[in-house]
Structures are given as C-alpha cells and as structure tokens.
Amino acid sequence: MKSLSYIFLLLVSFILVCCKNEKSVKQDCTLGKPTAIFTDSMEFIKQHTFNVKDQESAESLILPDDVTLQIDQAGCESISQRYTFTYPTQLKLDSISVAVDSVISKFNYLSTKNNKLKAFSLWSNALTQYKSQLHQNEQLELDNGIMISIDKMNSFNRTSLYFECLQKGLSEE
Fold first, then answer.
1. 3-state secondary structure (DSSP) of residue 84
2. Sequence spans of domains, the chain
3. How many CA atoms within 13 Å lie on the side-chain side of 114?
4. Distance CA 152, CA 48 (A)
5. Tens-digit pLDDT string for the chain (173 aa)
6. Which is it for the CA torsion 138, 107, 5, 10, positive or negative?
7. How far is 88 from 148, CA to CA, in rounded Å?
C-alpha cells in the first residue's frame, strides 16, 4: 500500500497543476490562474464548459450517464476545489457513507477515462481510507494542510453530492 505521504504529495501536485499554467494579473498571488481539468476533446464528455475570472474558475461537464459534474476552483496562496455531482434523479442515500461511495465511484470512473485524469484515483483512495471518519458537512484534515468535506442534498427531482477540498499554504516551488 502506498504511504500516506506519497498520496498527499500527489494530491497536492494535482491541485497545483489545475491552477498553475498562467500567471495571475495580481502580482502578490503565488499561483497562476486556474486551468481546466477536462478538455472538449475528451470523447466521454457529452458537454463541457470552462470559465475563469482572476483566481476563480467554474468547469462543468455532462457525463455519459447524464450526471453533471461542476468543479469550482478558487485560490491564490491556498486552493479550494468543490466538486458537485448532480444526478438527474433522486438517489436513495440512507447515510453519508452511501454518498461517499457514490463520489468514490465517480472519481474511479473519471480516473480511467484519460491519462490526464488518473489523479482522481488519489481522491478516491483518500475517501476510501477516511470514509469512516467523514461526517456530513464537517471538515476533516488529512495531512499537509489538506482539508476535505462531503455533503449531499436532495431536491425535487435530483440529488447533488458535494466534495470539497482545501489546501492551505501552497506556493510555487
């Protein structure tokens, strides 16, 4: 089994790659502007959009099973990423554990679709490892300043699952 330090180093690298390509207009910002994780050329995506303004971005895609994934990124010295999976129907989620399993499943799926997306398996592994410690809408500190939280919400005819991660104190090295 990979050591926790190795997993967290890879997670931090994944977060940095998503926000490092272009330097921000702000001179005091450590990281560049967020960049898209997905591309229009990824064949498994039904629809894809990416919008960026300063240090914030919103990326949205529709997967083959009609689940919508919205990724909101923000940050300068620390990075916040919020993944929202919206299912076109209501899911029966008896516990937060079932919601975590659904997010794990989606991250595993994404990690197999393109070499650029393999890092999603790291989130899947971390969620699997810490699943018993996760509580709805409460932050859990993993290591190296990485905080994660998970939440779920049923609306009239759909279910949304939220996975959020925050990496504090990043710098370009």
1. strand
2. 4-167
3. 12
4. 23
5. 344 444 444 444 454 445 444 443 445 677 778 889 999 999 999 999 999 998 899 999 999 999 999 999 998 878 899 999 999 998 887 778 888 999 999 999 999 999 999 999 999 999 999 999 999 889 998 877 789 999 999 888 899 999 999 887 654 44
6. negative
7. 25
